[in-house]
Amino acid sequence: MIIDMRTYTHKPSRYREFLRIYQESGYAITSRHLGFNVGLFTTSSDTVNRTVQWFAYEDHDHRDACRNGYLSSAVKQAFTNGDEGADGCIRTQESRVLIPTAFSPLRDRDPGNPVLRAEGCPRRMFEFNTYYCLPGQLAGALDAVEHGLYPAAQKHAEWIIAYLTGDAGPERIYELRAYSSLQRRMEANAAMRADGAYSAAWAALCRHLRDTDSVIWEPMPMSAIQ
User: Fold this and answer.
1) pLDDT in tens, 32-89
2) DSSP, residue by residue, 135-171
3) What is the pTM of this model?
4) Which CATH class for the 2-98 domain?
5) Tell me: the pLDDT tens digits for 158-195?
6) Where are the domains of the chain?
7) C-alpha–C-alpha distance, residues 157 and 155, integer Å
8) In CATH, what is the architecture of 99-219?
9) With the CA atoms of 36, 68, 92 and 53 taken in that order, what torsion angle do they form, in degrees rounded to the nearest 10?
């Protein structure tokens, strides 16, 4: 499985308009032509007026076939519709192909994967972390995550959804965690800082990193993951 992570930054004056258009017609169109909808999110930290879409495909050939069908679709043209439609609400867009690691809880396109839903918590908030590796340090960083950070984080994070890397470009590791609330996330982070095993695992990982970043996402109503 590969995941196409598409990030759209919207014009502030038209952000709500885009959400309305996407919920009323865009989602039905993209879900018909593109891959499995893993997640549809809005950002509530870092850059605002931004949406993030995760579509899963079997491989690059599957992604290309879906994209070609979508781009040639007449209903797609009606949805985007230049400045008057969804395209006119967008300031910038980027696409990044992510590949789940061998130890990632989310590794397939199964809609029944238990990480997509949480019993007793109908709507979670998500923490998307990026670990920027030093040149040539991706393998060492992955080993530090698999054998150190991941098992240590499982003691405190309510849900760990995925670990991924990019298929090309800068060496990075992406991590998706989930919490029932921002308060619960704050409590978990405090517990991690007080945990000697977690601190040691974090220090071991940081030897392979040049920087980190963390943003908060909230799922849209149509998102498979909630």
Assistant:
1) 788 899 999 999 988 889 999 999 999 999 999 998 887 777 666 656 666 667 888 9
2) TT-HHHHHHHIIIIIHHHHTTT-SEEEEEEEESSSS-
3) 0.93
4) alpha beta
5) 999 999 999 988 999 999 999 999 999 999 999 999 99
6) 2-98, 99-219
7) 6
8) 2-Layer Sandwich (3.30)
9) 0
